[in-house]
Write a structure and sequence with these properties.
The structure holds 2 protein chains of 2 kinds.
Chain A (H helix, E strand, L loop, with lengths): L3 E6 L9 E8 L2 E9 L6 H5 L7 H6 L6 H15 L6 H32 L4 H7 L1 H22 L8 E2 L2 E2 L5 H5 L2 H18 L12 E6 L10 E4 L4 E2 L4 H4 E5 L6 E5 L4 E2 L2 H8 L5 H9 L12 H21 L16 E9 L2 E9 L5 E7 L1 H19 L5 H13 L5 H4 L4 E6 L1
Parallel strand pairs in A: 2-15, 6-11
Antiparallel strand pairs in A: 1-2, 1-15, 2-3, 4-5, 6-7, 7-8, 9-10, 12-13, 13-14
Helix pairs in contact in A: 3-4, 4-5, 4-6, 4-12, 5-6, 6-8, 8-12, 11-12, 13-14
Chain B lengths: L4 E6 L5 H7 L3 H7 L3 E4 L12 E7 L5 H12 L1 E7 L1 H5 L11 H8 L23 E3 L6 H13 L10 H8 L4 H5 L15 H4 L16 H10 L4 H8 L7 H8 L2
Parallel strand pairs in B: 1-2, 1-3, 3-4, 4-5
The chains are: A alpha+beta, B alpha/beta.
């Protein structure tokens, strides 16, 4: 084995946004790993200053084309809680329904187009489609259903136009929502197929050791609201977030890294499932058990199976919400600005997304802070990368590079979001 | 015969416009059967060297490195099409063009010295010749497929350059501006969304940027009559296409 070598990927493929990886090895020792984010900074927090608070959902949606509903939801949660707006239950459920659409679209994209090619040795889902057309077609059909749901409730799948502080501009009719029942029932079948399929993939043995953090809401799997909890006893309201979570700016990244009470923590499907599996629908819970997915699942390679369970759940939950839907009297409540600071969280497909806004009495945003899931996960990703590289230091460069890249994709990093976030090189000396 | 080479490039952006390609779903597989995906990092780790028959460019130029990179991409591309508001008019991040970039860096990053960025976010056409600009924040995926198909066949894309207002009339939507007094940029905004916002009881907020030859000056009195203050009018034009000339003038001539 050459003593010192550097393994690099200058531009990670099949992730959202621009990042790179470096792993530097000296014999069997890992000297250095980094996930470098070179996505150019876009300064959303600065350009929100001076805007009206009602503009926050439309502006922050533009942070990410893959999870705009997450941005819109955390934004409206923060501003509505500050202004004391009581959101009627049917409107809140409609938000959850829209968010289910985003989970389906984003998870189907990641499972089939970004992640599965790693396990099966393909460069892309397009290549995979030549050998396994029915699998890729199934993934695309799932994704399409997620997009259709977002389009119906939100106006369009990317940067929905129907979300406002206080609710929606227009609530869909019962009849309109009923048109989604057949596609969602087929999507739920496709999600069950997906779960049975991903459960048969080969997974390297791994176990993450860091603290697991997700939202939690009694009686429901966390999506659009909840308290912030962890497997080590953290249980706080969104407004207490910054008393426990601290962001740091490091040189190699245009993203900021986060710590929880000084330690590393993990957000996303593994954390949500570990902390909330009991709140899944009976179908999602049973089907997870059927394929042998334990609770908790702490192997990041198996996150693709957990995402598949969440796909089943999101379809199931969307159907439940449509079944119980009553058109609200008004699609929104009027929200008058209140001077002060508001805090909002929600579960983006890749983990908890935190927003804080300070606004003036006339509704002008004076300060904004946004902490996306990927920058919160970056430290956990790098720790995992370091350990994977150390345990596999005898592999040839190409194999090690592929394994390291897959290790990163396990977390579904969204670099566009994290910028305020990644470059993978493996260096060996 | 070799298949045409398609490349997708990303600059400063949210990834939404290239996601529109993946959102084509079945049509995507049809398309990838006809072309070689030479460069599309979000979708594939496979890379085929240029030159490229068609380059789709998402995002705006915000760093010195990207200003050089777009030159290389232009040199390697027979045709270059920008997709979306960032590539076509600088995007929402171009709002920093109106402010002080150091204040922007300091507002977001604790250690501003680690950040390298240009003072401006600029459209791709400010740097290189562009063969077609597809508008929208995000682009309409059906229009995107039309543009790609047209370029691969060497014909002109069939993309209307009229206004959202015309699409709204064609759909028979009740005018939110006339009937409800809702401020709406439909008369001056480029078509392409299918009058989405009016269909959802909302005024157009200009995702597709200015239409060809818009008369923004004629719209301003109406917006004032509808109760908008000057600052609100300026904000309405200062979103995803703020540096597009007809929208920029509204603010600069105020």
């Amino acid at each position: 084995m050459p003593e010192r070598r550097t393994i690099t990927t200058d531009y990670l493929a099949r992730v959202e946004g621009e990042g790179a990886m470096t792993v530097r090895l000296d014999g069997g020792e890992v000297e250095h790993v980094e996930l470098r984010i070179f996505e150019p900074p876009r300064f959303f927090e600065a350009l929100l200053q001076g805007r009206d608070f009602r503009e926050a959902p439309d502006i922050t949606a533009r942070i990410c084309g893959i999870c705009p509903v997450a941005y819109q939801t955390s934004a409206v949660n923060a501003l509505e809680s500050l202004c004391g707006a009581e959101i009627p239950e049917p409107v809140r459920e409609l938000r959850r329904l829209l968010y289910c659409g985003e989970w389906i679209e984003s998870h189907a994209l990641h499972v089939y187009m970004l992640h599965a090619p790693d396990f099966l040795g393909y460069e892309s889902a397009v290549e995979l489609a030549r050998d396994a057309p029915e699998a890729v077609q199934r993934g695309l059909a799932l994704k399409r259903t997620g997009n259709e749901l977002m389009t119906l409730v939100g106006g369009r799948e990317i940067h929905p136009i129907n979300v406002r502080v206080g609710g929606f501009y227009r609530a869909p009719t019962k009849r309109e929502l009923r048109t989604m029942v057949d596609p969602l029932e087929r999507a739920r079948e496709a999600a069950l197929e997906t779960l049975r399929w991903t459960a048969t993939l080969e997974f390297p043995e791994r176990r993450v050791e860091c603290e697991l953090v997700s939202l939690q809401q009694p009686g429901e799997y966390p999506i659009e609201r909840g308290r912030i909890v962890s497997d080590r006893g953290l249980d706080i309201a969104p407004k207490e977030y910054e008393e426990h979570f601290v962001e740091e700016h490091v040189e190699r990244s245009t993203a900021l890294h986060s710590r929880l009470d000084g330690g590393t923590y993990l957000l996303g499907p593994l954390a949500r499932y570990a902390l909330n599996a009991g709140s899944l629908s009976p179908l999602a819970r049973e089907s997870a058990k059927e394929v042998g997915l334990e609770v908790p699942c702490l192997n990041p390679f198996r996150s693709i199976v957990v995402r598949s369970v969440e796909l089943v759940y999101a379809c199931d939950e969307a159907l439940r919400l449509i079944e119980g839907y009553e058109e609200p009297d008004r699609p929104f409540v009027e929200v008058e600005p209140v001077a002060g600071t508001g805090f909002g969280v929600s579960e983006a497909p890749r983990g908890m997304l935190y927003h804080r806004y300070r606004i003036a009495a006339d509704g002008t945003i004076e300060e904004a802070k946004i902490v996306p899931p990927t920058s919160q996960n970056q430290r956990a990703i790098e720790d995992d990368l370091r350990d994977v590289a150390a345990r596999n230091a005898t592999l040839a460069d190409d194999e090690l590079r592929a394994l390291c890249e897959q290790t990163i994709r396990n977390y579904d990093p969204c670099i566009s979001c994290a910028t305020h976030f990644l470059d993978l090189q493996v260096e060996r000396r | 015969m070799s298949t045409p080479k398609l490349a997708v490039w990303k600059f400063a952006s949210c990834d939404g416009c290239q996601l529109s390609l993946l959102d084509l779903e079945d049509d995507l597989l049809m398309l990838t059967g006809k072309v070689t995906l030479a460069e599309f990092r979000e979708a594939t780790s496979g890379v085929v060297e240029g030159p490229y028959d068609l380059s789709l460019v998402e995002g705006s130029v915000t760093t010195a490195h990207d200003a050089e990179r777009i030159q290389e991409i232009r040199r390697a591309s027979k045709a270059l099409v920008t997709i979306g508001a960032c590539a076509t008019s600088g995007g929402i991040q171009a709002l920093k063009n109106f402010g002080d970039v150091e204040r922007f860096v300091a507002a977001v990053y604790a250690s501003p010295e680690y950040i390298s960025t240009l003072a401006t976010s600029t459209a791709i056409a400010d740097h290189v010749q562009v063969d077609f600009e597809l508008r929208g924040c995000p682009v309409n995926k059906h229009q995107l497929l039309e543009v790609v198909t047209a370029f691969l066949h060497g014909r002109k894309p069939g993309i209307a350059s009229t206004s959202v207002c015309e699409e709204c009339k064609a759909r028979g939507i009740v005018c939110v501006s006339v009937a409800h007094g809702t401020p709406c940029l439909g008369p001056v905004t480029h078509a392409g969304c299918g009058a989405l916002c009016p269909a959802y009881n909302r005024g157009c907020f200009g995702c597709f940027g200015p239409k060809e030859t818009p008369n923004t000056a004629a719209l301003l009195p109406l917006l004032r009559d509808q109760g908008l203050q000057q600052a609100e009018i300026e904000r309405l034009f200062q979103t995803f296409n703020a540096t597009a000339e007809p929208f920029r003038k509204v603010v600069e001539h105020a």
